[in-house]
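Changelog-adjacent note: as of this version, every example in the card shows the full chain rather than a window. The one below runs 303 residues end to end.
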Amino acid sequence: MRFDIITIFPEFFAGPLDHGILRRARETGIAQVRVHDLRNWTHDKHRTVDDRPFGGGEGMVLKPEPIFAAVEDLLGQGQESGKGKTEKREEGTGGTSIVLLSAAGNLFRQFDARRLAAKERVVLICGRYEGVDERVAAHLATVEFSIGDFVLSGGELPAAMILDAVTRLLPGALGNEDSTANESFSAADGPVSPACSAVGFDLRALFEGGWNEKSRSKAVAMVQAIREKRGILDCPHYTRPPEFRGWGVPEVLLSGNHEQIRQWRRKMALTKTLQNRPDLIPAAALDDADHAILAEITSRNSQ
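Full-length structure tokens:
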């Protein structure tokens, strides 16, 4: 998979790309990451990338010409800035996503990370200043993302976060691919991707009989694990030592009773979601047992 990052601060990415999963993914060829200086697509001696907003107001706005030229050049469309029109492609078609990072964008979620992980190529456009000329969002980007209800100085931090979130879903990026099936938000906000990129399997091959029985059984189990998460937070986790500074591990986790452990984890996941992210509850596909757990938690908290 290839990522192209368009920014006016290419040196920003020297740190994030040289550590952890991103470094390993690059070294093993799982992901290619190219960082591009937007000023390389300017044509004046000052390498100008911004201008004042029409209608007045504070701040500066990134110009459309260098951004269009950069994306068209990277994708081999062969158009010069300001000449002709770029045909905007709808997200979900083709092998490339063009992502504009903007405070005004759609909230980026784990489902979006899975969707991008199914692509062959992702172009990340880092916004700056007061924003980006709207024609970039309307006629070039296939999707516009924000990472939260707050404003940053630019799109470099969001781009690094999205790069990490997507890369870790690529097959082979993690030491244990099962890890991505049992995390917070692992099934949030949308259906399982047709390519099931979150677990590194192609469901089309599954249903076309292209796998052996062992691979098919593993894929079914992992997809079921994703669906059972239903968009709530992950449960608490514990490891050795069993007692630390007087704080012990819940006895159920030491019991060896897998069904009781499963029930405990589900209850704790719902408890944490209700406590930290209650906004996720209305959209989660909960069953009767889940609603009973939530009623119990609510009743206990009100006493």
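Structural remarks: The first strand starts at residue 2 and ends at 7.
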